[in-house]
């Protein structure tokens, strides 16, 4: 089944623009995906980045052009409540992966459970 899927992928990549360059790009990303899978990395974030990258870029450009109408670009983009909530979630997800944060949270919750058992 693998040879059939490979041939169909090559035909599909060539059929889009009738270009060998597209087939080479497909092969390069296939090789990158193979290496990522061999090394234990998840392939899904890369696929999401490739698929959603252009959509995110277009919306980011739109947001910057709308925010540039104000006095200060940074304040007008990041002072809205939804922006602050998203920034907080991003910071929480980034810092929760550090070892010292994990041990501090574990100690914090273990102290709280010890007090509940004493009473």
Question: Brief overview, please?
Answer:
Helices cover 85% and strands 0% of the residues.
Main sheet properties: none
Strand count: 0
Straight-line N-to-C gap = 65 Å
Please state roughly what percent of the residues sit in beta strands, choosing from under 5%, 5-15%, 15-25%, 25-35%, 35-45% or over 45%.
under 5%
Return the average pLDDT rounded to an integer: 85
Overall, the morphology is: flat
Number of domains: 3
Find the structural class using helix and strand composition. mainly alpha
> Helicity range of the residues?
over 70%
Elements, N to C (H/E): HHHHHH
Instruction: Point out poorly predicted stretches.
Output: none
Number of helices: 6
Rg from alpha-carbon coordinates: 23 Å
Task: Tell me about this structure.
The protein is mainly α and 119 residues long. The protein folds into three domains: 41 residues, no CATH class; 33 residues; 40 residues. Helices cover 85% and strands 0% of the residues. The protein is built from six helices and no strands. Helix 1 crosses helix 2. The mean pLDDT is 85.
Structural key phrases:
about 120 residues, flat, mainly alpha, 6 helices, about 85% helix
SSE layout and pairings?
Blueprint: H1 2-17, H2 20-39, H3 44-67, H4 73-78, H5 81-95, H6 99-118
Helix pairs in contact: 1-2
């Amino acid at each position: 089944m693998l040879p059939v899927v490979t041939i169909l992928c090559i035909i599909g990549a060539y059929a889009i623009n009738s270009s060998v360059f597209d087939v080479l790009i497909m092969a390069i990303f296939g090789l990158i995906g193979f290496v990522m899978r061999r090394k234990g990395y998840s392939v899904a974030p890369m696929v999401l980045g490739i698929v959603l990258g252009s959509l995110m870029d277009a919306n980011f450009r739109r947001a910057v052009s709308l925010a540039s109408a104000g006095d200060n670009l940074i304040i007008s983009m990041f002072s809205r409540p939804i922006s602050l909530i998203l920034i907080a979630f991003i910071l929480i997800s980034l810092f929760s992966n550090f070892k010292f944060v994990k041990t501090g949270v574990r100690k914090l919750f273990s102290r709280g459970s010890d007090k509940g058992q004493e009473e």
